[in-house]
Amino acid sequence: MPSSRESAFRAIVAVERDRAVRIDEGLKADELTPVERDLALELARGVERKRRLLDLVINELAARQPPRDPYLRSALRLGAYQVLFLTRIPSHAAVNETVKLVRHGRGMVNAVLRRLISLVQQRPPDPAQARREIELPEGRTLALERDVLPDMAESPAEATAILHGLPSFLVERWVTTHGLPVATQIARASSHKPCVSLRANRLRCTAEELAFQLEKEGVETQPSEHPRMLRWTGGASPFSTQAMNDGLFLAQDPTALRAVDALEPREGEVLLDLCAAPGGKATALAEAVAPTGCVHAFDPHPGRREKIQENAIRLGLEKVLSIHGDLATLPLGDGALADVPCSNTGVLSRRVEVRRRISQAAIEGLARKQRGILEDTMARVRPGGRVVYSTCSLEFEENEDVVAASAGRLIRDELTLPDPPHHDGGYFAVLQVSGGSAV
Predict the structure, then answer these.
(1) Who's near 76: CB < 8 A, 6+ residues apart?
(2) Secondary structure letter of residue 164 according to DSSP
(3) How far apart are CA 436 and CA 439, in angstroms?
(4) CB 236 within 8 A of CB 259
(5) How many domains does the chain have?
(6) How far apart are CA 275 and CA 171, in angstroms?
(7) Which of 118, 192, 293, 389 is the most exposed place for a label (fewest CB within 10 A)?
(8) Is the distance from CB of 356 to CB of 321 less than 8 angstroms?
(9) Are residues 262 and 201 part of one domain?
(10) What is the CATH number of the domain that holds 265?
(11) Residues of the domain holding 94
């Protein structure tokens, strides 16, 4: 059975060799305990969040001749991430275990990582040495021997992008749209470990009752910014509890739930969810319309529909949540939610692999697809009904521009910037359907 570090290493190599691979998918084949899986995810996702910075440091310490072999490169990134950012693992132990992951080149990996340890100092960075000193967790600093970072005054977007492991063009977009201070805030949030939030099943418990039940099972939580949610802060995993088995909650981010609330779902209504998997928003809608209403959730992929069904059964919603694989079977709705596929720039802390795939062309292509989904959604809602269009993107082409091109009347919209201790980033718009008929 592989260790957490071995499993993370294999996932990092898989992503290095194929940009389409998702880290969490790469870990599914390994038989890990929940604690081991959490550590493996933290290691693999952490490496991807900090990849540009790790590569810059590795390149410097390897005499600017980093290995091309994906296994050696991945081992160096994994070891460097542990030394610099995962302080609960002793650095020398992390290096020893990382060296064991590779069959050849062990001497080089060992030398680079031990050199890295020697450059970590227990003090804050010197602002006058910003091009060579990098702030680390717990008051530490990586003090390199020469300037390697771009000058923040001359190239703020490039320097910020490297520090937070992001494509430079993306940070430049944020600077243009939001200004440098806000762009820096977004970049910092995008490289931060995200929070885990739990939505209480309103048909079975309140958030306070859920917190009490989880506490009895060793799960530590705090109230969330949303009254029906909790934040998992420590202790046992909530996903291995009786409360989970009893359908008392579902993992969901507050930003996602705000998009559901914006639709103002009411008991007895017939509502549609046109991009439903994995079912977080669809089940939240179903809780609101129960017991006399119905949510019709569409997804074209059988595997994803199975996931929606699993959540519906666990939460006790199978009588008010109908799952469809054919758009032609959907009824006319009182309202609808279109949570469309997007670039994920509001959830880069969670969807870390997106960093490798995102481009300006990809954003523009997604926007074209999103316009079609929104128009199709509005055609399936009765005249005068309401539609919520939502994304987990921060990009105006996917948000305001798509809404402006629609035939609906804009009632309100909201852009939420990511703040990892509390919520993801995202956007929603509430539209009123002025006319049309079911397709």
Answers:
(1) 54, 58, 62, 66, 67, 109, 112, 113
(2) T
(3) 9
(4) no
(5) 4
(6) 28
(7) 118
(8) no
(9) no
(10) 3.40.50.150
(11) 1-124
